[in-house]
């Protein structure tokens, strides 16, 4: 009897041992399989990420298109260039737009060869910049002009301007002369004979309302508008600030010095005016698509010259 019990106990111990070993073996197999699966999945994910990066790089720099790098002010110039971008792609060019918020850096970058062209300035400013800094930049084409406007700050109208009213104008030479010419056209001041495109407030011959004229950096004019009675603001900065020509107290006439002289141009380094890529850029910017965009979008704040 004892012998039978001992044999039974031995069998139970053996069975338990087999069960334990079996459980342990299954766990190791599952762990190994899991590790292999994770390794495979990780490799696939890495390959997928690499493929995605390659795709993004290809999209960012199309291999079949030649780059044209153009500097521009955010509005309206960069916006207009965006319309020209697909047109240039059809011509085999990848238009890359670099935005600037001042009038000096885009010319310096063009002179340094960092840009193929820039599109932000009118011709008198370009000529003045060359003279002042010794740069050799040239106009490849005139695209549009932006009417200067007199915008209301504290004063509701030009007729209500009080004696000694504060007036803000751009502080760069060509734009200040243009602003003063607009004030003169409204009968607010009279400039000295022959002051021309380089007139400053020192060239004011008559100032019946004793207007206090302050020269301010052009980009800052919309921001200080609430602090002055009126301000004469460049078209592009007025657009960026949400100001419309229809809201202005006075605007340059189509036959004014602004319309006939201050055309916004595509500027390039001298000698590059007729290069293939610049010709393609000008053709795109003077297309019907761009003209329609300008007329429908800016409602007179930007006037195409083609």
Explained architecture:
The chain is an alpha/beta fold and 306 residues long. The chain folds into 2 domains: 66-146 and 263-304, D-Maltodextrin-Binding Protein, domain 2; 149-260, Periplasmic binding protein-like II (D-Maltodextrin-Binding Protein, domain 2, 3-Layer(aba) Sandwich). 47% of the residues lie in helices and 20% in strands. It is built from 10 helices and 13 strands. The protein has helices spanning 2-60, 74-90, 105-111, 123-133, 173-185, 221-224, 235-240, 257-261, 276-285, 288-298; strands at 66-72, 93-99, 117-122, 137-145, 149-152, 166-170, 190-191, 204-206, 212-216, 230-233, 250-251, 264-269, 303-304. A 6-stranded mixed sheet has the order 2-1-3-12-4-13, with helices on both faces. Helix 2 (74-90) links the parallel strand 1 (66-72) and strand 2. The radius of gyration is 35 Å and the shape is elongated. It starts with a helix and ends with a strand.
């Amino acid at each position: 009897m004892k012998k039978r019990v001992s044999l039974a106990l031995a069998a139970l111990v053996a069975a338990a041992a087999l069960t334990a070993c079996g459980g342990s073996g299954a766990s190791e197999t599952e762990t190994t399989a899991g590790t292999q699966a994770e390794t495979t999945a990780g490799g696939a994910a890495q390959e997928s990420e690499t493929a995605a990066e390659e795709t993004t790089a290809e999209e960012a720099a199309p291999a079949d298109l030649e780059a044209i790098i153009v500097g521009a002010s955010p509005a309206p110039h960069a916006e207009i260039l965006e319309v020209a971008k697909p047109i240039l792609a059809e011509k085999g060019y990848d238009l890359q737009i670099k935005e600037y918020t001042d009038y000096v850096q885009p010319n310096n970058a063009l002179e340094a060869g960092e840009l193929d062209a820039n599109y932000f300035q009118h011709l008198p400013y370009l000529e003045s910049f060359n003279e002042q800094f010794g740069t050799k930049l040239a106009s490849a084409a005139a695209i549009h002009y932006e009417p200067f406007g007199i915008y209301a700050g504290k004063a509701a109208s030009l007729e209500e301007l009080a004696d000694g009213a504060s007036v803000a104008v751009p502080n760069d030479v060509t734009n200040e002369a243009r602003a003063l010419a607009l004030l003169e056209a409204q009968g607010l001041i009279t400039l000295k004979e022959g002051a021309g495109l380089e007139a400053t407030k020192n060239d004011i011959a008559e100032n019946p309302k004793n207007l206090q004229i302050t020269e301010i950096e052009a980009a800052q004019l919309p921001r200080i508008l609430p602090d002055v009675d009126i301000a004469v603001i460049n078209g592009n900065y007025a657009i960026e600030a949400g100001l419309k020509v229809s809201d202005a107290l006075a605007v340059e006439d189509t036959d004014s010095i602004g319309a006939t002289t201050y055309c916004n141009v595509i500027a390039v380094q001298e000698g590059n005016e007729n290069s293939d890529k610049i010709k393609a850029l000008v053709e795109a910017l003077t297309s019907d698509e761009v003209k329609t965009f300008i007329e429908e979008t800016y409602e007179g704040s930007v006037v195409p010259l083609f």
